[in-house]
Structures are given as structure tokens and as C-alpha cells.
Amino acid sequence: MPEVVIVGAGITGLTCAAELRGHAGVTVVERVPVTGGVHGWEATETREQTAASGARLLLGATAVRWDGERLLAMDQDGAHLLPASVLVIATGTRPLGRAELGIAGPRPAGIVAATVAVHLAENGLLVGRRPLVMGGGDWAHRAANELLEAGAERVTMACPDGVLAGYAEQGEDLDHLRKIHGARPVRVGGQPRVQYVELSNGDVQACDALVLAHGVVPLRNVDGAVWDGPRTVYAQPAADPATVAGARTAGSEAARAVRSLLESA
After folding, report:
1. CATH number for the domain including 258?
2. What are the CA-CA distances from residue 92 to residues 51, 149, 194, 226, 235 (Å)?
3. Residue 174 belongs to what domain range?
4. Mean pLDDT in each 10-residue stretch from start to end of the chain (265 residues)?
């Protein structure tokens, strides 16, 4: 039976693994020691299906390089060379970075991605007490809510493309959350930490952190295993907001693509 390696143990990767049962031996590589990804609390059924499929889980391991025949993964025990006929990239998505957004100015401390800000806030750590969040989508609102829950005094949201449907009224009546529609950060200032952000509408917003939560693009964190590598399937839905149904659909589509590659081989 051929071997398939899946990088990413979120719902997309787990769904793909479960649906390859009987078609290939599957190893799922995940850099954190838990499965489920951003929808972990809703992944119980998918975890059970994956376990029933006999797929191997390699948790706490970082995928490093794919040469078309083997994936190199590293964990605390050392290197693992995983032979495979097909590699599936299911590592999720991320908000756009500062360079991609064209934000000028120095590089003070306090400029972080929403994924990092949320992770820290969920563990009671604040990236700032008066942060400015760039974005009006799912990650932006999640970051704003988690920061306020963790103790932020005030959160300002700069929403370049307005607010995602479903979030129009959320937080508008709160004194500690303000939304600025149609404006984007163009320059950041302050040393050694963020002190203000200039917006495209001419406003200058005082803040102590800039949280980047605008746009959604595939997360490319496997050196040499991406950018159209041989026999590589990409399963990274970029819908905003991300949904469990969308993740499962992407996993099913990836499994079909893998089966097609195996049959053609």
C-alpha cells in the first residue's frame, strides 16, 4: 500500500487522513502536541474517524523538507524521514504580514500577527493594553475579543474593507472597543515599542501594539515542501470566517486529489 504524509492535524488534515482509509498508509505530522487546529473544540468526531482509519500521528514535530519521495520532520527525539508517494499540506492560513500590507516606519516591539496575539491572550498574556487591530474579519474580531477578555483597557479596530457580515453590530456599544471603518494603517511609530499608528484617513491613533488581522493567505511553513513541489496537494481553505464545514470539505477534496495521484502513479 502506498504511503501518504499529511502536514497539519487540524480538521482539514484529519478529514483527509480518515478518507484515505484503505487507499494508503497515512502519517499526520503536527508541530503542536494536540490535534484539531483552530477548531479543536469541534474536532472530536473527526479525531475518532482518524483514529479508526489507523493513521499514525506524529505530534510535536516540525515538517522541514520534501524531496518528492520523503518528508524530513524534526522533533525532540531527532530527525524522522517519512517516505511517501504524496504530500498533503494542510497547515491552515494566516493574516497578511506587515511587508505584504505595505506598512511603513521603524520596527518597534509590539507588532504581532493575530494568530500570536490570540494564542497569548488565551493564556492570559497581553501584547498590549491599548492595541490597534487591523482588520474587520474573523481573526480581527477574535483577536479583539480575546484581548479584551484578557484585560486590555481598550481595543481599536481599523477595518480597511469594513466589517465582515455577521459582525456589523458586535462591540459597537462597548466603550472599550472602537471600530474605524474604511481606514488602514500606513505607518507605525515609536521606540522601543509601538506608540502610535498613522491611518490612511489621516488619523493618528495612540496605541501600544499593532495586531495584524487583515486578509487570509495559506500558511507556508514547510521549507522546500511547498510552491508546487512534486506530488503535493494543498488543502488550505482561505474562507473568512473559517468554518468547520469548510475545513471538512477541503479535507475531502484533498483526499480525492490524493487518490487521483495514486491511481495515475
Report:
1. 3.50.50.60
2. 21, 25, 29, 13, 8
3. 98-212
4. 94 95 95 79 77 90 89 92 95 92 96 93 94 94 94 94 66 75 96 97 97 89 62 89 90 97 89
